[in-house]
Amino acid sequence: APAKKPRRFRYFTYLWRLTYLSAIGGTAYLAYGVWDLRHPEEQFEPDPSKKNLVILGTGWGAVSLIKKLDTENYNVIVISPRNYFLFTPLLPSCTTGTVEHRSIMEPIRSITRHKQAAVKYYEAEATKIDPERKVIMMDDNSDVKGTANKTEVPYDMLVVSVGAENATFGIPGVKEHSCFLKEIGDAQQIRKKIMDCVETATFKGQSPEEVERLLHMVVVGGGPTGVEFAGELQDFFDQDIKKWIPEISDKFKVTLIEALPNVLPMFSKQLIDYTESTFKEEKITIMTKTAVKKVTDKTVEAEATGPDGKKTVEVMPYGLLVWATGNAVRPVVKDLMSQIPAQKDSRRGLAVNEYLVVQGTKDIWATGDCAVAGYAPTAQVASQEGAFLARLFNTMAKSEAIESQIHELSSTLNLKPGNPGEIATAIEAHEKQLRRIKDIKPFHYTHQGSMAYIGSERAVADVSWLNGNFATGGGLTYLFWRSAYLSMCFSTRNRVLVVVDWLKSKAFGRDVSRE
Ligand code: FAD
Ligand code: NAI
Q1: Nearest Cα to 347, choosing from 365, 379, 372?
Q2: Nearest to residue 115, comparing CAs of 47, 42, 53, 49?
Q3: What is the DSSP letter of 143?
């Protein structure tokens, strides 16, 4: 008999086989993803007599709804000025070129084309919602306009998922002089401005004060957007800019200003401390209990509250100013709220009930950052709300179909008195099915945790797991952060592009050319 292989060797063989099989499985999955993306099935036009379901927006809430909706049940019309879905969690990485912007965009045309029944898309901004007449007014605000660029779209059912705009609290100078971080254009503007400040600082004869100003990067708002951006920016400087332009090494400075006593208020105390100590190591200055009151083209004026409660005003010259102080209500939403008496006390957006119906309206639902459902304005909440609405609308369509079947059977029952037993049983079965379908539970949010990148290949995560929570920070959390975000990317294409970007920036460094 052949000699038995040593146990160690057998384990190695098993491991090798497992790796081999996973590689084959992974490649097949990837290949299918790519093939599927390029070969959508034939689409059919939905029955024009079905209800018009209008969806405003192409963000987290809207796209999650579109993805799970059985589009054959409605005439679905999507209206949004942005003809792509944006994977916002990786937007801070675009400001420094760790990830390229097109890698986190997914065309809405590709998303709608993959639905069984066709979906109409209009690249336009909804300017007014008229709940009385049940119409949406929309404008084509793009650079290229045809003779038709302003019109109305009627709806039977409407989902408002337009997100939010940047909060400025009316602070003078913010709109004129700072960069925001919400859209692709913002990230591109920041990326360009960072390098512009660096190159201008090295201009022949630049005074030391001007160099100091130009290389002072100020971030206002210590929420996750501000923290992640500050971390990415310091990485860009430490890992790339410093290598190519060493003469500015000791002059580049990142300052994060936060009005509250600490940054990342939604994270646990342990992770807040970890973030603050990591920022200290990275040489990012954190100014807490400091509220910006005024902005000019070159300075930020902030009021700091000392430990004794005394207030002092500091004026800081800056080169780049990034404003990340949270969300404000969009004008189209404000206008809708002003038309509905039940919305008069709502401040942060459209107050919705547990089925996400806009309070005080009929046939209007809202999801995401423009809805006030008692949850934080996050992608997690928006996408769960979108998925909930898809289930609700699929169910509504199903129950309507069953109701009409019952109606048909009942009329047969009256017409054919000779065969009542069979029909009555069928009606009963349908009614039972209808009761089961109609028993839709209200929206329930499941919090899976919060994560944020804090620079120097470290991340913090408050994760809900097995009915418990655990808080973790560091290098391993960073790998978890990367893999979690990679798995959440919209498509195989996005995933592949993001991985390639990460490898590219690791191997060759980030590109310091100013576009
Ligand atoms: P959005 O995704 O903002 O989409 C709104 C859509 O409406 C857009 O398509 C817009 O073009 C369209 N629109 C705007 N105005 C109109 C109009 N008048 N008519 C028609 N359409 C209109 N959340 C997390 O949970 N995890 C994260 O890691 C995370 N990271 C983030 C990083 C950054 C930099 C930012 C800015 C946010 C981050 N968020 C994160 C929050 C998350 O992005 C939002 O909560 C989420 O985008 C909300 O989804 P939404 O569908 O309500 O709005
Ligand atoms: P935010 O609302 O979370 O934080 C804004 C911060 O700015 C607040 O802490 C506020 O105190 C501060 N601020 C306001 N005015 C100020 C002033 N004048 N001077 C100084 N500080 C001021 O906003 P953010 O970070 O844009 O996030 C918006 C939403 O998106 C949040 O719900 C957040 O959870 C979510 N998000 C989640 C991310 C993640 O999970 N990794 C990443 C980015 C955003």
Answers
A1: 372
A2: 42
A3: S
In this structure, the residues whose C-beta lies within 6 A of any atom of ligand 1 are 56-62, 79-82, 88-89, 91-92, 125-126, 161-163, 181-182, 225, 330, 332, 368-370, 377-380, 382
User: What spacing in Å lies between the alpha carbon of 95 and ligand 2's midpoint?
Assistant: 17
Q: At a CB cut-off of 8 Å and minimum separation 6, what does 267 contact?
A: 275, 450, 452, 460, 462, 471
Q: What are the pLDDT digits (tens) for 285-295?
A: 999 999 999 99
CA-nearest residue for atom 49, ligand 1, is 60
Q: What's the pTM?
A: 0.93
CATH of segment(s) 174-327+446-508: 3.50.50.100
pLDDT single digits (tens) 139-177: 999 999 999 999 999 999 999 999 999 999 999 999 999
Protein fold of 52-164+329-395? FAD/NAD(P)-binding domain (3.50.50)
- Domain regions of the chain by residue span: 52-164+329-395, 174-327+446-508, 396-438
Look up the ipTM and state it. Answer: 0.99
Nearest atom within ligand 2 for CA of residue 260? 11
